[in-house]
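User: Predict structure, ligand iron/sulfur cluster.
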Amino acid sequence: APAPPPALHRFSDPGEVEALRGNLLAWYDRCKRDLPWRALAAAEPDADRRGYAVWVSEIMLQQTQVATVVDYYNRWMQKWPTLQALAQASLEEVNELWAGLGYYSRGKRLQEAARKVVSELAGHMPRTAEDLQKLLPGVGRYTAGAIASISYGQATGVVDGNVIRVLCRLRCIGADSSSPAVIDQFWDMANALVDRSRPGDFNQALMELGATVCVPKAPLCGECPVKQHCRARHRKLFGKPAPVPDVEDCGVGDCPLCPPATEPWDSSLGVTNFPRKAAKKQPRAMRTATCVLEQRGCRGAPKYLIVQRPSSGLLAGLWEFPSLPLPQDLQEEKEREVLADHLQAWMGQPVAAKGLQFIGEVIHIFSHIHQTYVVYSLHLDGDVTLDPASSPSRWVTEEEFHASAVSTAMKKVL
Ligand code: SF4
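Assistant: Predicted complex:
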């Protein structure tokens, strides 16, 4: 077994752990936010439905703010209140409801997993974190722990960004929190800390603390229910680490959880010395030419052509204006030509490059891609026969466009 972490970074006093759990849970009972998935999980007597309600919320909340998720969650649960209902939905319906929430593969995988539960597990959700992670596609360690603790009362911890920040501050952890060895330590700590009788509430309380009090930039330490257990705060107030028995084994350069010797404590940052900021990876720059093809529909209202993206990869299965990735540093004239060629091959009729009207550029940041859409428009007179061998496509009114499974980026383009 790996050596336990140095005392500064451990929760080694059982009395302190008990007090911390009690303070955190009492605060949660008083201050927790009213959220629809909490109300559903608390009121639902059926274990499978409860697990499903928590699962949907956890998938939606990955990388997305609570305030954005609430409305999507309510619409989703109204439309598909059970796993069985979701399993019968089409991917198109799932994408339509998910449109605007981002990271679209989450909705698709949720639906695939629901189908698996219905067809292979007789409609019953696995009941432990281990089985949830093993049996459900798209359910990782965090989501499995959240579902198992909140829905089924399993005493298992969870580690997400909020929990990492709180743990780093409670125990002065300044090592790179994205390194696998450090993440393992967080999981050990979360599993050791979780309250045995109210694990779901404890996990939600720890995350809630990170989301509302122990926030990244200006934490509200004065209002914090666990401030007396916080070693970062102790260090800020007293200028030195908390008095723990073998604290001298830390901070000399080889402690695996202390900040590196090259990044010493900065007193102007206080508790926000922790967690240490990881070097941000630069997103990849991409340019894509996109063409809004427009036709006059009945009563002169415009109709737009949208095509469906492939069923895997970025924005899988979503609809977009005909688009074409461009090599970097292409001259504008050349961009126009390659786009005209692309449209021509696909529509089976000549498209003159100079007929494409340049509209402007739309920038959209995906998690790892800095995407620039170079937007053109083209008005078409008469009928266009689309090549049936190419991607599925259809003409839509503006209203239909907004109701379709299109990405936020395409809405910006329109
Ligand atoms: Fe976070 Fe401050 Fe509470 Fe420590 S005292 S856990 S830094 S809010």
